[in-house]
Predict the 3D structure of the following.
Amino acid sequence: MSSAELTPTEVARWAARAGLPLTDDRHAAVAATADHIHSVVAVLRELDFGDTPPAGAYRAGKEKHDAAV
């Protein structure tokens, strides 16, 4: 998806193509929501996770803690 904002007309076309026709009064609201979601995802894509292991590698409750507290 490009960084250009979706227009209400594009939203109506994509929704109809997906089998989710929208009433005319919803096009602008759905376009604004989609643009907001796109901007949040764009920020997440910029994050550098480096050597962070995938979540599946984390084992909650399996760590040994120092008993001398």
User: Anything to note?
Assistant: The two ends are 53 Å apart (CA to CA). The first helix runs from residue 8 to 17. The chain has a mean pLDDT of 84. The helical segments are 8-17, 27-45.
